[in-house]
């Protein structure tokens, strides 16, 4: 891809992000931060490339460390988001938390 | 050597359309993940889209970048037939794959254990810690790309007449890399400070260095200068100086910012972690990273904007820091005026007789961990036929949506929880407002007193209710902004002075 087509993807994605994020309900702003955190760890792609490449051992080890850090974030971020989202319930409560 | 190099360049540059397509699918999954958050009903499905997108991105990268022989070995070679296809290389690649999988496994264990154990009240710290990891990962990737640019497909090998061949990084890639490393480093050190402040390991009070604006400007200029140097000459020293100075400026930017401005800071760092990912996406020509970076970047920026608007402060003034560092005269005057003190029994009586009670939680509720007992109180009231609602100010707590998560944790149905603009008109028809752990966000001075530092901030009109019950630890303390709250001294206000959790527990007992 040349620079201009990459830039177009970026600019359009910014607009998509703008509209999608405004549509997020304020009650879910904390899960929003947690999940954006998890997905920004897509930077793991770069770390994987570095870790898989031969030639520069220093870069390889940095890549592996990057994979560990990004994985913490990916697994932790999605798991904590799932944990939070599971707590949001409507008024008709499930069995177990019934009124006395 | 040269053969190996050309092969790697092929991996990075001449990608098959399917690979680009896979990254695009991953990017779309991430958009759907955020889209799902428009309602709690669809949010869990959204989260699963996010996981799927990440899995696609990771598998695609592994398949294209771990050399094929390694996968072939794993698939076909239980009895060593692969000897003919170059055993040394093949064995080496398996090692690489195993190393990577081990790295992912280590991260997965740490991440999953943390996610399971973390208390909901500690969510702001956790998010700050996660931001710091994204920042650091971006820095590591950028450094790796600098050390081994050929593997990333961003350099040409130049063979001079004399001496070793060396890699010349493309001009555009240099800008992208240096941007990625600078934003990543700033995100990392800034998030570490935010984490320490939110975690209480460091005072939440603003730390003001002398001449800090000048100092920050000087550091920022130096970063631009060395970044320019790296762009023009690809000198290693420029690169490392940008890394070091960016770590420094992240630190300098966050230390002057006080505790209650943290919602803005956390959102801002969220935004930065996105821009760092986007910059690295430009370097790698990877659409999944670019789309994600743009999404996360705009998400953080919008949240920062919402938080600033909710405080009626400009983003610049928040970032400049120092708010609430100077104590106003209001604190001293606090005890001079007449106010009424109530007991748990009084509160229980008033609320039981009410038709509608609106609960206004704030950071103090989180500190006291009072959300569960608060919900018990609400249940008791509902049994007695009282309508109970919750009113949330956007900046209540230490991060956007902080109160909503705590209430959800305590099993409060989300359709009883209302945002400021949806409930503010209702206070006039409310019998009792129950303020617990909030202060500045209820201060009517924001509407009337032009000299107040919080003038113009949208506030909850709690004083319009027939009675205001204000839970507070003591009369001495003031809110974050350092201003006295007129609500304390009104005729229709009853102060409930105690630890928030103890007070609510007593009210629950009195309701029996």
Task: Set down the secondary structure blueprint.
The complex is a heterodimer of chains A (100) and B (512).
Chain A: H1 3-22, H2 29-40, H3 44-52, H4 57-85
Chain B: H1 2-13, H2 17-35, H3 40-65, H4 68-76, H5 87-117, H6 123-147, E1 155-158, E2 166-169, H7 171-198, H8 212-233, H9 236-254, H10 262-284, H11 287-311, H12 315-320, H13 330-333, H14 344-353, E3 356-361, H15 363-368, H16 371-383, E4 387-392, H17 402-409, E5 417-419, H18 420-423, E6 432-436, H19 445-448, E7 467-472, E8 493-497, H20 500-511
Helix pairs in contact in B: 2-3, 2-11, 4-5, 6-7, 6-10, 7-8, 7-9, 7-10, 8-9, 10-11, 14-20, 16-20
Membrane topology (chain B): Multi-pass membrane protein
Transmembrane segments (chain B): 20-37, 49-66, 95-115, 127-155, 175-194, 214-233, 239-257, 288-308
Main location (chain B): membrane
Explain what you see.
The complex is a heterodimer of chains A (100) and B (512). Chain A has 100 residues and is mainly α. Chain A has a domain of 60 residues. In chain A, 70% of the residues lie in helices and 0% in strands. Chain A has 4 helices and no strands. In chain A, helix 2 runs antiparallel to helix 4 and helix 3 packs antiparallel against helix 4. The relative contact order of chain A is 0.11. Chain B is an alpha/beta fold. Chain B folds into 2 domains: 205 residues, no CATH class; 182 residues, Rossmann fold (3-Layer(aba) Sandwich). Chain B contains 20 helices and 8 strands. Chain B has a 6-stranded parallel β-sheet. In chain B, strands 1-2 form a two-stranded antiparallel ribbon. In chain B, a hairpin with a 7-residue loop joins strand 1 and strand 2. At the A-B interface, helix 1, helix 2, helix 3 and helix 4 of A face helix 1, helix 2, helix 3, helix 5 and helix 6 of B.
